[in-house]
Amino acid sequence: IACRFDPRSVRFELAHARPDGSVHGSLSAYLEHTGQAGTMPVAAMNAGMYHPDMRPVGLHVEQGRKIAPLDTGEGEGNFYLKPNGVFFIDAEGRAGVMETQAFAASGIRPWLATQSGPMLVIDGAVHPRFLPDGSSRFIRNGVGVTADGAVVLAISRDPVSLGLFARAFRDQFSCPDALFLDGGISAFAANGRMAIGGNEPAGPILAVFEK
Q: What is the model's pTM?
């Protein structure tokens, strides 16, 4: 499933907790919360990795408020499979996906941002560490930005390798830059209804609303 959005025509929201500070914990719980508030996203999916207490790993900026700082360190797991990167919407409403070090040097002050890893596509090239079609396969989700600034949210219906998923962003969705968000617990909702997953744990959540 792949959805393309013009950031000038929709409103993106990044969330991980309710106003009282309690974490949503899953995409279905987030949808229940937004429904009770009287607003339902056009699309929503999990948007990055998280600590055991569900706090975001790496940079997390919600509506201009920094919840967690940029992580440029080393570690284990997909997040630290360098280069990793950041998906962001800036103060002017422009979307981008940038490698972490490039983002740190850019001076961009995002209105919304989530850091994850690894990058799937960097300047039109698939991540150099990926095999063409490796044996590690999961239902995966990610985000990319096209050359004309559109945002593509995508999730696989079936388990896929990182290499295949990256090539889908580059070759099918025309994204010169794309970022892996997660796998195994990936979930996606459209028009308030779950399409894939939903009850699996989720820390950061990215949602798209009509303006």
A: 0.97
